[in-house]
User: What shape does this take?
Amino acid sequence: MNYDTIVIGAGIAGMLAAIGRAEAGERVLSLSKGHGTTHWATGCLDLFDIGNADPLAGIESLIVHHPDHPYALAGIDAVESGAERLRAACEAGGYPLVGSLRRNLQMPTAVGTLRTTCLVPVTMAAGDARQLPRQGDGRGPLLIAGFHELRDFFPPMVAANLRTLGFAAEAAYLQMPPHDRTLDFSTVSLARLFDQPAFRADVGRQLRQLVQHGTYSRIGMPAVLGLANATQVVSHIQSAAGALIFEIPTLPVSVPGIRLYCALEAALLRAGGRIQVGSFVQRAEGKGRRLEAIYSEAAAREQRHYAARYVLATGGIAGGGVRADHAGALVETAFGLPLRTPNARTDWFAVRFLSRSGHPVFRTGVAADAGLRPLDAMGHVVYENVAVAGSALAGCDPIREGALEGVAAATGWKAGRL
Amino acid sequence: MNHIEISLTQSLDHCIKCNVCTSACPVAAVTDKFPGPKYVGPQAQRFRHAGQPVPDDSVDYCSGCRVCNEVCPTGVKIVELNARARAQIVAERGMPLRNRIIARAGVVGRLSSGPHAPLVNFGLSLTPLRWGIEQVMQIHHDAPLPPASSYTFRSWFKKHQPVAGVRKQVVYYHGCSTQYYEPRVGQAAVAVLERNGYEVIIPKQGCCGLPLLSNGDFPAAKGRHMYNVEHLLPYVRRGIPVVGTSTSCTLTLKEEAPELLDLHSQDVRAVAAGTYDIFEFLRNLYEAGELDTNFLPIQREFPYHPPCQLRAHRVGLPVLDVLGLVPGLHLNESHAECCGIAGTYGMKKEKYQIGMDVGAKLFTFVKAADSDLALCDSETCRWQISHGTGIATKHPIEILAQAYGL
Assistant: This one.
């Protein structure tokens, strides 16, 4: 079928691009290999890790000094409007993102450290480190509460590490309320239980007792507090417990990430877009500087798709948009676009595994012009009717820079509005 | 090992343990009997070795809906790993009588359909008899068994007068359900194909073997598949496409049987590459400018469920594309993962409730649509939807035939 725009990749970048074009009245198809990296990430918006400084001002300065950075290609307007569109999608799902692009937040992690981010779902808002009780400040301490049954979330460790940062933090394990599940728990199965009023009421009662004995002012819990109605779930537990509740992101699968994806999916469907998951785009056919058709893997034969324009939002090395082949060369998986990448394999990695500057290989991506069109090594546009968005773009290491979702939202929304 | 075999067995090395599959699995969401695709698939697979006992029986609770494959971000062939593990259990321990019977849809259909069908249907409508069947056969007394047809599709086709003067040919693969339970689906398919200028050929054919595959009887499934390849190949070799209205049968011919049974001869590949789901075929006609689009308007809105077995073709939603051309007609897509029946899965006594719980989201959607009719491409899903909602169901091809005034 003929589409106006086909977007490849269903992470934040791809979904915002698809939403933008569908809302402009285009026929839009979203193709993806599987669920996007939303399901792996925190469900927050990391804009730019620049300590206590103003992140938006930091991006303005970055744009001046690094004109090939994705933020520079997107422009400051798209940085702001992309984040705004993401917020609106979440807001429409009753799951607002809070915070300001002018001020970063420090949020507790599942190992009890602090992590820089910018916008967080309202269910995490009370975890803002600036508001957390510190040792000796006379406020009721912070309680980190979890369940033995949930792997990879250890309240005593979280609390102990937060204490070393000066916070007044204690820990408790809760009794699993009566339920019909007997097997071990994942974040998602627990979140589904929290959607049940009786389950969360039981948790609320346990927390209330703990608050009465320990005079806790805030309670941090793993981010499993409901899948469908998280805002409501947190507010219920909060009023039952008598203390502020906040979620702490967990290891994948990320429940807040799923909520974010659901909000974007709902917005795209509302705008009339079509979503096809499980379809890996593996090659493309171009004629001159126009991409004519793309092919996705399917049963027995490929499926061919046509559109007037295409958005490539397949991610970088972590997301699967860039892969190393057996010969040791890095390839862009969908269209076979030229990549800007370290010259030789020996240049991929820094000497130290935890090098502060990060590994050069993670800056691999497709170089693009101000219209996000892909460029070859000579700086010529490869395809006029293709825009590249998100971590597939060269010139940044979004995780290292603390800009993963910010870059995705800015470039994705720009691709949706070009 | 050929490359497909390698990609299947090695795909588990692509698993990064992210649990996206388990979070999306509709079965794990409603029962503890199935711990989830990640555990049963790529994780348990590391403990499955030839000649050693199967480590985990819970794989039998995988419904085979393929939602895990659909959402996996790294391309692990989870459902194939599960199906093979189940077959290994069956090869070691044998197959219960119940599974041997319901896996033979063709035999059951042949015995039930025909002039005596009303008697069979009356019998199956009697509660005490259904309880008896549950006791003896372990088929749940409420499971949606379809009413047998008083005539078979092939007997209708024999008397059917084809349209004269056509140049193009197409093979119709009707499968068991159209042959024995819903000949009207095949009649609509033939009418639509003829309307588009095709002579419809119905060669000898047998069950696609999917119920055997999903119940773990691989040797019998192999026999079925090779029988179909033998009878379809002469047409495919002449460039005549094979189209089917049962989306799970066409998926089996295209991919499930060759992949699971490790059949990759040129003949098998040719049949796979020449087989199309009917709406996929019609959409190709449309894209080539060859589809007759003189439709009568249908001022209706219907709920439509794209079954998991259709989504597993990975060709998008051709029904929405083609029926979207009919003036006035609007289909509301369900977005439910699965209806729960998964072929024979939800008919089994121990799995019936799981199937109904899996389908609950879809049933709610269909009931809320305030329509007296729902559409779905797969027969067992249609029966399950009607069972779960009390609302009549049709194959979308029946609506397309109506839009042609046929």
